[in-house]
């Protein structure tokens, strides 16, 4: 694992060929993830991307693949590359475009790569926990990136050799266990280990010569395989394949391990498939231009809006979305109801991760940092406002108040998901049940709390039907509290390994 030549300002070189950048500014994320710190939205899972393509600029392919997946994780980013004889990992805190530039990518040369953009679900958001993670094996190195969240991390961590890891993530535990089995090739070690791993995981990993991808038996988090002109790519979403010019081949099946090298793609089953794809991917997580299980996410969200109009009709003058999360469902609601669709709120497209700590005065402006009403459009109107979820209710409360101040005579809120009343243990960082407004209040109480004239959530049956998948093939735990993989809540949590340490 000899490191490649570093760029002009490489930062600190660590063991195993990893580089820690020192010139990248760190964002606090408050305006992007936490517009209102009291009403944190569901944080996305992570994005993973892998490519095997001799003759291609794999670091740039991975960069653009991660760029397409940036919505899934905005805390850190990293890329590992190999030229066949050595692995180099480059990662740091921040967005993909903050971590990587032309000079950095120019040093990451090889024919295969894996990349990751992270939102932390196990382990703190610190550099040591950024991915891909790198471990030493009998024959060289192993770089691994993970989307999802394990529920038996603590038990697995007890098997990790002492002193073999500094990180506090389930990803590091997986990498350490794979690398520790020195009696087998990585493919065989993975096939033996993965049946013992419980929870949600879509993995991309590599040694110096081979790319691997694996998905948990339930297929909770998405993963797809694509064909490049001179190779192959795997990614969390089809949108990432599109941006690098890869042709979608198929989904990586639940319980499947793929091996990709000069011999092509080989498939191996390590567990029987028990499909339970995440229903919330359709609601919020996935890009609208992504396809899941043969169904476009945009089409699903528009259909949910139509179902909302059927289930919760109202007399109104205008349907407006909360941009952009509510836009597809608002289009569907308008089409089905016959009420005109319009833009009543303008989003500041440049509000994202910020390097400036907001002052108290600015923070009190709250939602106006991100959204501003078009008074001439909404004044005197009865509005239907469509959004995807209500978490604690603070954001919707602020929007309703802002619209009334701008002259709206009625504000009817419609939500394109059922009430989220249960936490997720499989890779989405929701608030706790006690913090979720639907965990303690019924619909009428929530309506009163946010100050709307009426409030309607799409039914669970309506949302499920829009996906075109049967209910038994979906994980709907955040809406029902019925978890497809039994969870010992005393043995899970974001800081389970840090608490143990």
UniProtKB/TrEMBL annotation:
- Residues of the active site are 46 (nucleophile)
Pfam families in alphabetical order: GATase_6
Enzyme class label? transferase
The cofactors named for this UniProt entry are: Mg(2+); [4Fe-4S] cluster
> Which NCBIfam families does this chain map to?
purF
Q: What is this protein called?
A: Amidophosphoribosyltransferase
Specify which residues bind [4Fe-4S] cluster according to the UniProt entry for this protein: 278, 424, 475, 478
């Amino acid at each position: 694992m000899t490191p490649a030549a570093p760029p002009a300002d490489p930062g600190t070189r660590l063991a195993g060929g990893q580089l820690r950048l020192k010139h990248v500014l760190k964002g606090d994320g408050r305006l992007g993830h936490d517009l209102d710190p009291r009403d944190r939205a569901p944080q996305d899972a992570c994005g993973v991307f892998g490519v095997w393509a001799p003759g291609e600029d794999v670091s740039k392919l991975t960069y653009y693949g991660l760029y397409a997946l940036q919505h899934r994780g905005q805390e850190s980013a990293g890329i590992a590359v190999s030229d066949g004889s050595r692995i180099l990992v480059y990662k740091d805190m921040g967005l993909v475009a903050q971590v990587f530039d032309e000079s950095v990518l120019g040093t990451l040369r090889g024919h295969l790569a894996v990349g990751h953009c992270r939102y932390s679900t196990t382990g703190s958001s610190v550099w040591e926990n950024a991915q891909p993670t790198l471990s030493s094996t009998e024959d060289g190195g192993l770089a691994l990136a993970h989307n999802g969240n394990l529920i038996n991390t603590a038990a697995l961590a007890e098997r990790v050799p002492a002193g073999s890891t500094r990180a506090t993530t389930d990803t590091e535990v997986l990498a350490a266990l794979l690398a520790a089995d020195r009696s087998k090739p990585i493919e065989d070690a993975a096939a033996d280990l993965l049946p013992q791993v419980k929870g949600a995981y879509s993995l991309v990993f590599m040694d110096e010569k081979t790319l691997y991808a694996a998905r948990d038996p339930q297929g909770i988090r998405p993963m797809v395989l694509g064909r490049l002109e001179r190779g192959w790519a795997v990614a969390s979403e089809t949108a990432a394949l599109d941006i690098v010019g890869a042709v979608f081949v198929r989904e990586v099946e639940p319980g499947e391990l793929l091996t990709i090298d000069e011999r092509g793609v080989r498939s191996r089953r390590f567990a029987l498939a028990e499909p339970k794809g995440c229903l919330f991917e359709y609601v919020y997580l996935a890009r609208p231009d992504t396809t899941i299980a043969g169904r476009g996410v945009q089409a699903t969200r528009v259909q949910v809006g139509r179902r909302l109009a059927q289930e919760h009709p109202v007399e109104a003058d205008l349907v407006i979305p909360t941009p952009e999360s509510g836009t597809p469902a608002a289009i569907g609601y308008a089409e089905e109801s016959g009420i005109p669709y319009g833009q009543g709120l303008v989003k500041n497209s440049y509000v994202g991760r910020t390097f400036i700590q907001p002052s108290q005065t600015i923070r009190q402006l709250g939602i106006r940092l991100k959204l501003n009403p078009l008074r001439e459009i909404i004044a005197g109107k009865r509005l239907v406002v469509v959004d995807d979820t209500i978490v604690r209710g603070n954001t919707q409360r602020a929007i309703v108040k802002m619209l009334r101040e701008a002259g709206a005579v009625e504000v009817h809120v419609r939500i394109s998901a059922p009430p989220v009343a249960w936490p997720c243990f499989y890779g989405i960082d929701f608030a706790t049940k006690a913090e979720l407004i639907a965990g303690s209040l019924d619909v009428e109480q929530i309506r009163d709390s946010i100050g709307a004239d009426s409030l309607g959530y799409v039914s669970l049956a309506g949302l499920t039907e829009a996906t075109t998948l049967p209910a038994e093939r979906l994980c709907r735990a955040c809406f029902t509290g019925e978890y497809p993989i039994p969870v010992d809540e005393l043995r899970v949590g974001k800081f389970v390994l840090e608490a143990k340490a």
